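Predict the assembly for these two chains.
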Amino acid sequence: MTTVTPDSFSSAPPEVVGLGPVAWAKKNLFSDWFNSLLTVVIVGVFAWGAYRLVSWALTAAQWQVIPNNFGLFMTGTFPSGLYPRIWALLAIICGLAGLSWGVLGRNVSTLFSRSVLIGLGLVCAFIVLFPPTRPSSLKLLPMVALVAIAAAAGRQAGRKFLGIGKWVSLGWFLSYFAALWLIGGGLGLTPVSTNDWGGLVLTLFTAVSGIVLCFPLGLLLALGRRSALPVVRWLSTAYIELVRGVPLVALLFMGQVMIPLFLPIGSRPDRILRAIIALALFSAAYLAENVRAGLQAVPRGQNEAAMSLGLNTPTTLGLIVLPQALKIAIPAIVGQFISLFQDTTLLSIVGLAELLGIGRSILANPSYLGRYAEVYLFLAVIYWIFCYAMSLGSRKIEEKLNTNH
Amino acid sequence: MTQFQTEQSSAHQTGTEPVIVARDVEKWYDNGFHVLKGVSMTVYKGEVLVVMGPSGSGKSTFIRTFNALEPYQKGTIEVDGTTISHDLKDIEAIRREVGMVFQQFNLFPHLTVLQNVTLAPIWVRRWPKAKAQEVAMQLLERVGILEQAHKFPGQLSGGQQQRVAIARSLAMQPKVMLFDEPTSALDPEMVREVLDVMRGLADSGMTMVCVTHEVGFAREVADRVVLMDGGYLVEENTPQEFFSNPREDRTQKFLSQIL
């Protein structure tokens, strides 16, 4: 007979014993002959693919095309004498990014853990060792340092002053106009024609402008589609269905070709502006449906509770319904932003030299004939970095807004 | 609490001043279903009125017409001297004076408990934040959840959420409180804590209209009990008469089903 000791009633959860690597592999990868076979085959295929890729990248690939054209990739035909302006812009963005990181993470220890430091170290090592960045690595390293310093400063300031988040948001808002000024010139700076805007700078500028414009428009369309006023509802629905039925390329061509036909010469908007408007109008229709899905997911009781407290319709919408709807719709909205970012590649079709367009014009240069794999792989990595950053950001925001635990 | 022992205790300071006057209210749903077939009822200041009836009898719909959550097609409803019309200003004025507690609590999940309670006083009554928070803390203490003030609704039990919902309505200092099956969505062990809060509220002289299936509560706290069935108001009676000696056969049948 076993005696029951008081220990048996202890309320502590049973200790979870971590599996050793061998036991883990046995449990998850080699539990029976079929799983073992699958593991071996899949690992084999991946290893072979990775080996081929690495050996190609190290021996066969001719990476010279990237460092030789690094300026083109980043800024297009932007006059190289004015590069300090681009560096200044990058410094502003790095500073703001670091500040935001510090302020948002002031109470989150994971943002300042050892793994983050290791990550920063890896970025520095990559910048120094990766050939394409070498011409500028002396300027890139201070940028990484700037992010780190701003993050530390933001963390300290965030703990001292509670309202600092608003100022950082204001900083981001102002940085958009600073970007416009630094890239385009004017107001004391040498003007740069939009024909010379290009590369990653143009890609980011059109994507950010498109996102900033399409969000409010999509929101209004979503609300309009649920409006009690029939005319507003019909117009919103008609717009959404019309735009969703047309390919983006068609809209871009219309923007480039048709808008100038309707407007007198001289008052034609710039072609980058036209492209941004087409992008924003297109994405707004999809965004509206994402927001509408979020609106429909908010229970009717929320509206009723707010109304029964005497809140009027705009207040109910702004304080109760929209915050919940947008929170639900974050994954879909960010997905739409990511597609918009990737859709900027279509601007190369209408003759704008954004990142992909620059890549293609470089490939058309006889001295880089046949360097497709190198160039496209490089472009893919750049696009991936930005898209992954967006989806990572959306996940962090979701975690921050989760109030159910 | 002595009410627990005595069968009949209610007798709140019921005035003769009507707070809600409903006359021949008729309502059809959009699909043509005739849900209210001419219901008349008066709620006097300080009284506790319990509305009972089988599901689908229109009792929830009826009390939801009192703060214009449900429109109605015929008849009139006057709340605190104002007739409910299509005028949004009137409707918002009425909703400021009428508190409502829902079966599903309907707390705002993205706001803390304290923010839930202070939201309407700040945005509707235009109170300064400090005053709203002070009143909210007093109310949260009154319903027994002061220590949860900075949590989110999703972190509370059902009974706690419903008590927050009551505090949220009280923060607007309403003239009358409507309860739409406040305990029906609760686990059995949490019904008591919510009913205790409602009992305390009744004792403080609040005018209350409660749709509920809690017979014990109706017996002990109500000044009047009414039975609704099939869109009609079948019987209106004192609680002791209603439960022990009902006038209508329909009431008899209903009671035999639930007791």
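Chain B touches chain A through 29 residues (CB under 8 Å). DSSP finds nine helices and ten strands in chain B.
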